[in-house]
Amino acid sequence: MSAHIHAQNKTTEMERNVLLIEEQGSFAVGGKRIVKDGNFDLTNPLQPDGQTYHGDHAYVFYQVPPKARKYPLFFLHGAGQSKKTWETTADGREGFQNIFLRKGFGVYLLDQPRRGEAGRSTVEETIKATPDEQFWFTQFRIGNYPDYFPNVQFPKDEASLAQFYRQMTPNTGAFDGKVITDAVSQLFDKIGEGILVTHSQGGGPGWFTAIKNDKVKAVVAYEPYSSFVFPEGELPEPIQSTGLFGALKGVEIPLSDFEKLTKIPIVVYYGDNIAKEPTQVWNKDHWRSGLEMARLWAKAVNKHGGDATVIHLPEIGIHGNTHFPFSDLNNREVADHLAAWLREKSLD
Amino acid sequence: MSAHIHAQNKTTEMERNVLLIEEQGSFAVGGKRIVKDGNFDLTNPLQPDGQTYHGDHAYVFYQVPPKARKYPLFFLHGAGQSKKTWETTADGREGFQNIFLRKGFGVYLLDQPRRGEAGRSTVEETIKATPDEQFWFTQFRIGNYPDYFPNVQFPKDEASLAQFYRQMTPNTGAFDGKVITDAVSQLFDKIGEGILVTHSQGGGPGWFTAIKNDKVKAVVAYEPYSSFVFPEGELPEPIQSTGLFGALKGVEIPLSDFEKLTKIPIVVYYGDNIAKEPTQVWNKDHWRSGLEMARLWAKAVNKHGGDATVIHLPEIGIHGNTHFPFSDLNNREVADHLAAWLREKSLD
């Protein structure tokens, strides 16, 4: 008991003061190796014949505090993002990287294959500079551009918004859930058991990684949208939506795969300003369909003996969150909720 | 004196033990903002009309130890690389990020504009998956593929080589020295005085940043090749080479700009296996031309009253270095030499 109190005091001290890092570094994990037919000619070395190309790996930056908790956290970003998602917030506060380090967790931040510092892709891509930020402002539920939602937990100064836009970074090859799943699974093989934290589009590879690799001891998904998986024969009807991606469909997978998701605790979080009923306001309705599908999915997991919880933050008194609850103005409160959930599930 | 000894002891302890971080985080700096003509239509939000696009910024991850030394180090990578250059080495040892943190320096690692996590580019780019790694093995002087140089300070196992290849990441927009210089200069404006450490292609923007911004208090350049600047009328003859980029030319700039480089200490390092005389071995000859041009350049800087030093590592007894001395097997020795130079110049 006294050791427990001592440990708590240390955590509190660390939350206020200097970060202690037992080990930090970076590496590539997963990926493919292509070899071009022919022989490499040292006198004609810009010819690809006989040369290799390594691509489709993930990049990982990790930090482990002294006396780290049992399970590290593995963070997988969403569409158009990189590991920056989990770092400093747009207005310069600490993100989940620092917050959970201070709570004593090892943290592993990924750039998924074909993104950020994991940019070597085995498939060709053309990147265009298409102005699209007012779309993202709205899609990510900061507000309905140019209006901010009245209660939004997002800073309203121009500099913060510019930082938020600049944290986007493009695909250097087409998004491929299987390529990402393979790399994330190999990360668990390399490091060992841990907790997978996903955001948005990362949710899909998150489910498939947990199915593929039993070293995933829990999944925490912030605002997943697509790729909710159901056992064959149990797919719900598509959920109609005025969102830009139209009706939301589930994904059918073999029951034996689905059952893997019933072996671990899973929590799914959604923020605020999501419609309760169908509406013509496309961003609010897009996320309504996501939240509804998440609830059908959790019901299916639990019907099969699993432990999946969907938390709509406003329902527990946490208001104003965007599509990025972990970097919103109240991200410490959001982090504390996750920490309490991890404790409740004996995962800390 | 006793305080000095105490500080030294603390450094030694930190070198062996836990990293102490007073502050760490990330942000975007510099860049442009494009606005598409027209009005944003909330009901047609995938139309670019009236929307904005932020791009051409640098991404920066920084860590500052407690009681940091006066000048932080700003690290700018070379061609095809990202900030990963300065992190964990291919064989899993600590890179300059950790080594200089442990020596008490704040470290700022950049992904230059249009690279890595700073991927939003204002110009379009097509990225191809062209096998080219045997070229890079040779160009970067690990050896003449498939042979390693006999004395090379590079690990010879397959896994390390794969990690080295996987740390490459492509341009998401054309390389543009001015765009990079602008972002790096704005980083100095934001953070304040510091020391700029460049690698290879980063050398060019390095010189121009030092010319543009007097908060650059010193430049450390590892194996710069192109963009050696000379005052108008003092350009040397191009240096012929059998290297793949042919003859190496200097760049003429106004004398008033050049003189900015004479106001700060500069050190330039080159590794091993560079030819002493012209040769048909193209990689050795490529870097021979770079080293020769560097020496002409340093002579010009010093003739104008500056303090530029070119160090060819084998000449001071440090053998076997590749194009990446800071991550080679002997990178602690390479770091210690830099630390001693910083001390000699009263920059630590």
UniProtKB/TrEMBL annotation, chains A, B:
Q: Which organism is it from?
A: Sphingobacterium paludis
**By what name is this protein known?**
Uncharacterized protein
In terms of SUPFAM superfamilies, this protein maps to: alpha/beta-Hydrolases (SSF53474)
InterPro entries per record: AB_hydrolase_fold (IPR029058), Carboxylesterase_BioH (IPR050228)
